[in-house]
């Protein structure tokens, strides 16, 4: 079997030939691999691009071939349904996303979608007939690389990102989401032309299959929330490569998630004065680039001094961007997250105070628009801090999480760690800048309110603590399954050990669904390098195959439960 380049052409090819799940997963990755692949520079698959057009057509063709009905929701996410779900008779949904950051890796996102397809195939090939509808989702623009809003599709669908503001977002070239939607038909037509010339990812499909797939790959007419659509799912399970090294430390190929850290994004604008790089003395410059550099160093210092915190400046734009011109304007974006929301609030508050020219213990100016005062060394450059997005700590459905632990643990000891320790995120909610919406500048009293209005989500904290108490007492019961039932993957490999439960500092579509009141949960597959958002991220085929079998066990188990009337609750409340 021909393997994708990131897996070994001999050892992994041998595993793929021996194991049906490994073979199916390798085949799917090979088909997808050419889309947006820039070799050593990684993968770039952005919203409403040629690459997304190819991904959408490929997904639709794959699912239609398996007997799924494919549709596009009001926010542009693709859903494939096996069975007819409704609010009265909901199903189980799985899946993830297929877009990427600039120069991203092969696994972040696609592993979840392709593992869902492979898991369904394995179940069906073992004689399983689902007792409730099964949905596989490919969420649109999870990374937010083009329009600078992470989890774009799920945020719009749940109403967290209002439709009018979604449509008004622009990319680096000034193209709005509205314009990108209007132009997507041309992107699909371009893919059609490439397919007719021999596009690798679609070469296995007939003309009839391709035609049907194009019909279900369109962009929505606009952007709209649709919480009623989500009522078709009683439980959503996302599988994702771990974006860290906790599973490697635990020796666990597969783990279950309990919470996502709170996180946000801020834009920082530095206004300096353009001048000649040669004739302007150093002590007479108002250099926006120098102010930016000092801010980046300050960000690192603040994060290093805080407990369980991450703060990153990863994007910058410079004007006029000339080699021999002192920068007049610099815009950068700050990503900040931590185990506790109050930690994020404190870090951003101190950064804002520093920009305003104080020592971080109080604002010397009327707002978060500094004039290079005090000891910040901005040399007369003004700086403005503006929040663009905020997501509170998200705790996944405790009932669904318990079910995932049971299903994965029952499947086999190879899918569990040697212990049942939980390393989940501290779970607490905070409302950063209460009453504000994305994109509102944080200035003066509003920013102070953001700090004072912070409050823990006691119910969420309690749910995690109760679950950890059950783990430490090793009192979690393993879900029993009938050995004779077709498609039962737990029968041959039962164990009494628990799958490890961990938290994550990375955001996911499952977290957005949970935030909106949906019952959602996650499985993680071990990341050998611990790296993410880079071509260095890596899951072995052996670990990815463990993930497929764990996913299959979870789908099988949860579908049976939902068919019997089970409706797991969300910590965040009802939809």
Can you walk me through this structure?
It comes from Bifidobacterium subtile. Belongs to the peptidase M20 family. Residues 265-356 form the Peptidase M20 dimerisation domain. Residues 416-490 are annotated as: Disordered. InterPro entries: Amidase_Cbmase, Bact_exopeptidase_dim_dom, Peptidase_M20, Peptidase_M20_dimer. This protein has 575 residues and is α/β, with parallel strands linked by helices. It folds into two domains: 11-261 and 394-427 and 499-563, Aminopeptidase (3-Layer(aba) Sandwich); 264-391, Alpha-Beta Plaits (2-Layer Sandwich), CATH 3.30.70.360. The chain is built from 18 helices and 17 strands. It has helices at 11-18, 20-32, 50-65, 110-125, 152-158, 163-168, 177-182, 184-196, 207-215, 227-230, 246-250, 288-305, 341-356, 398-411, 444-452, 458-472, 509-515, 541-563; strands at residues 69-72, 78-82, 91-97, 134-139, 233-241, 254-260, 263-271, 275-276, 309-319, 325-326, 329-338, 369-370, 382-391, 394-395, 422-423, 501-504, 520-525. Strands 1, 2, 3, 4, 5, 6, 14, 15, 16 and 17 form a ten-stranded mixed beta sheet that branches. A hairpin with a 5-residue loop joins β1 (69-72) and β2 (78-82). α2 crosses α4, α4 (110-125) crosses α18 (541-563) and α12 (288-305) packs antiparallel against α13 (341-356). The longest helix is centred in the last third of the chain and has 23 residues, at 541-563. It is globular, with a radius of gyration of 24 Å. The protein starts with 10 loop residues before the first helix and ends in a 12-residue tail after the last helix. The model is unreliable at 360-374 and 413-496 (pLDDT under 50).
